[in-house]
Design brief:
mainly alpha; 2 domains; single chain
Length: about 250
């Protein structure tokens, strides 16, 4: 019995995911390490994020040091280990900032398939980021649960997703393909209206608004079995059909 009690702490240490020593401080760091390592399994992050790689290696060495101290604690080494843990706090913030920047860049470059792979990452700020949330939700029909996220995404990002969904639905779901054809056209026309308006080509922009109204009217029928698409894009294109039409009509006549 004494033998079992003597070796019980060693058995528990061997199975622990993280070191016991200073675990109230270190567990958060090593949770981040798990998230970083998962990111680095993807070629994009492995090839483009050298700082992330270096930081993951640094945390891995620190974690190994923690396990060593669990088995053989020495006061001098413990103090150095504690100091190293505290110094990691700011490094974690900087690395997370770098990752957030990369997520935004991936969304901007329409790398949705990479972002979707991050939906189960151990780190909350990655898993729940706008970039990952949108990429996951965009492959589903919009719903009351994701409408707010979709509204925040730039028109360029929305158009990329809609085109992919349109190509995927052709030959598989004719009704959805017809709906997405109109919705993608609305998205494209909104982009063109913005561009023409910025270039002060008001009459050309007015033509696009009229086409947008046509597709918006058509989408009411083509999206009758995919109504959440119609509801979302009817709301987003509303100001273009109403306010912009009035403004452009006046500007075009001047």
């Amino acid at each position: 019995m004494k033998f079992i009690l003597l070796f019980l702490p060693i058995l528990l240490w061997a199975k622990a995911p993280y070191p016991f020593i200073f675990n109230s401080l270190s567990d958060t760091l090593y949770t981040h390490l798990d998230g970083y390592k998962e990111l680095l399994t993807l070629p994009y992050f492995k090839e483009n994020c050298i700082k992330l790689q270096n930081h993951a290696k640094e945390l891995e060495l620190l974690k190994a040091e923690g396990y060593t101290l669990d088995a053989d604690p020495k006061s001098s080494d413990i103090n150095l280990y504690a100091k190293s843990l505290r110094s990691q706090k700011n490094k974690i913030k900087k690395t997370n900032h770098t990752i957030a920047h990369e997520l935004t860049k991936l969304l901007k470059n329409k790398q949705y398939k990479i972002l979707i792979l991050l939906r189960d990452n151990p780190l909350d700020f990655i898993r729940t980021s706008q970039a990952v949330s949108f990429s996951v939700q965009a492959y589903q029909a919009p719903s009351p649960h994701n409408i707010d996220t979709l509204k925040q995404v730039a028109l360029e990002g929305s158009l990329g997703i809609l085109k992919e969904k349109l190509l995927f639905s052709r030959g598989k779901d004719k009704g959805l393909a017809l709906c997405l054809n109109d919705i993608a056209a609305i998205n494209y026309l909104m982009l063109q209206i913005d561009a023409m308006h910025s270039a002060k080509e008001y009459c050309k922009s007015l033509e696009y608004v009229r086409k947008l109204i046509e597709h918006s009217t058509a989408s009411r029928n083509t999206c009758q079995y995919n109504s959440s698409y119609y509801e979302l894009w009817d709301e987003r294109s509303g100001p273009y059909r109403e306010n912009t039409l009035k403004d452009l009509t006046t500007l075009c006549l001047e």
